[in-house]
TrEMBL record:
Keyword annotations: ATP-binding, Coiled coil, Nucleotide-binding, Signal
Signal sequence, renumbered to the chain: 1-21
Coiled coil: 66-93
Region (Disordered): 25-62
Superkingdom, natural source: Eukaryota
Domain AAA+ ATPase: 173-312
Start-end of Basic and acidic residues biased regions: 51-60
Family: Belongs to the CbxX/CfxQ family.
Protein's name according to its UniProt entry: Cbbx protein
Length: 421
């Protein structure tokens, strides 16, 4: 008897689903056999053919889609859970902020308007700020805009501390600074005084100043820059890191320059460790402005920009007199007038550096004074060789005349760049 196609199909489906055990009636001429997930239905037929069911031929073509859909739904559940948790965090944070605002409002309502914390002058004296500002006035001749800006910063810090005494919220302002100006205009001196003020006010632990240049921060080969920069930062922790001529850290013509790594480290420290390190950048104003245009993240981290103007001629003469006084030397009117002549001409030469040039001139004038006194007392045949206190403490017109004659000589031979001091 031939098995019909419908019966075979029915048996195939039933076997595939495992819902039917094949047990034909009549003589048992064939039994189901399972081999490698294949069910062989073998029965005597007129043609002697076998019927074979291969489950691989009947796979659901959407099975992969079902798995992907299941995975997508699981991922969606995870993301939804994360979003809900994030929403809860934001709501809790908003509630905390609301409570804080209400507390501040109640604090202000309940505060006695007549409550006093003391006078600003007393507070400045107690904290030692007044003494430091007075020393800044004596250290620096002129620079009125600079001193004014330093006093403004000091005022903010003092009033912030006074607010804290009464229980007001206080926030540490951005203390990173940028000093722009020519060499010798007092940038390092102001940094030293600012460090002392910040230390007295509790805004930094030590208040010392570490001066660094590109050579101190940038290495010569791969892997050398980071240790050098971090070492200088470590030395400056608790105080001020003064990066002189900071624009040399960036080389616009070479994007692989090692200075970029140093800049990135400084940016990270300025943002994340500003409570323990104050970074101050210094250099010429036009070059610093260009540097900030290349590194905008640096400019945004600096809260105080102070411009140091060049000294006037009369201020340079006064600086020379202050230096002489600090070294316990005397300069009479004729010596001061001769120094004025020297400065007038020296400012026409290259490499003029304001107070730094004055200091170099004073050092050379002291040398000339020593040679003059020595020659008069020992080398000259006349006289008894006695040296008075006045001789040892006086810088004369002739001591500056030597410097002036040197300038005139180099100017006459066209070698004005020979003077570098």
């Amino acid at each position: 008897m031939r098995t019909s196609g419908a019966v075979v199909a029915t048996l195939a489906v039933a076997c595939a689903t495992g819902s039917l055990a094949f047990a034909p009636a009549g003589p048992r001429t064939a039994t189901p056999t399972v081999r490698s997930s294949k069910l062989i239905l073998q029965q005597s037929t007129g043609t002697g053919k076998s019927l074979e069911y291969d489950p691989d031929k009947y796979k659901d073509p959407n099975a992969g889609n079902y798995r992907r859909l299941s995975d997508s739904l699981a991922n969606a559940d995870v993301e939804a859970k994360k979003a809900a948790e994030e929403m809860d965090k934001r709501e809790r944070a908003a509630e905390i902020r609301r409570d804080e605002r209400l507390a501040k409002i109640n604090f202000m309502k309940e505060m006695d308007d007549e409550l006093e914390v003391g006078t600003v002058e007393d507070f400045m004296f107690k904290e030692g700020v007044r003494d430091i500002l007075d020393r800044l006035d004596s250290d620096l001749v002129g620079l009125i805009p600079v001193k004014k800006r330093v006093r403004e910063i000091a005022a903010l810090l003092v009033l912030d501390k006074m607010r804290g005494k009464l229980g007001f919220d206080t926030a540490v302002p951005s203390l990173h600074m940028c000093f722009t100006g020519a060499p010798g205009t007092g940038k390092t001196t102001v940094a030293l005084r600012m460090g002392q003020i910040l230390a007295r006010m509790g805004y930094c632990r030590l208040g010392h100043v570490v001066v660094a240049t590109r050579d101190d921060l940038v290495g010569q080969y791969v892997g050398h820059t980071a240790p050098k920069t971090k070492d200088m930062i470590k030395k400056a922790f608790g105080g001020i890191l003064l990066v002189d001529e900071a624009y040399y850290l960036y080389n616009a013509s070479n994007d692989k320059d090692y200075g970029q790594e140093s800049i990135e480290i400084l940016l990270n420290v300025m943002e994340n460790q500003k409570e323990d390190l104050i970074v101050t950048l210094a250099g010429y104003k036009d070059r610093m402005d260009r540097f900030f245009s290349f590194i905008p993240g640096m400019s945004s981290r600096i809260g105080n920009h102070i411009d140091f103007p060049n000294y006037e001629k009369d201020e340079l003469v006064e600086i020379a007199q202050v230096m002489a006084r600090d070294l316990q030397y005397a300069m009479d009117d004729s010596a001061a007038a001769k120094f004025q002549e020297y400065i007038d001409l020296r400012m026409q030469f290259p490499f003029f550096s304001n107070a730094r040039t004055v200091r170099n001139a004073m050092d050379r004038a002291r040398m000339n004074s020593a040679i003059r006194v020595f020659n008069e007392a020992v080398v000259a045949s006349s006289g008894d060789g006695m040296v008075s206190a006045m001789d040892l403490a006086t810088i004369t017109e002739s001591d500056f005349q030597i410097l002036l004659d040197e300038l005139v000589h180099y100017q006459s031979i066209g070698k004005m760049d020979a003077i570098v001091a």
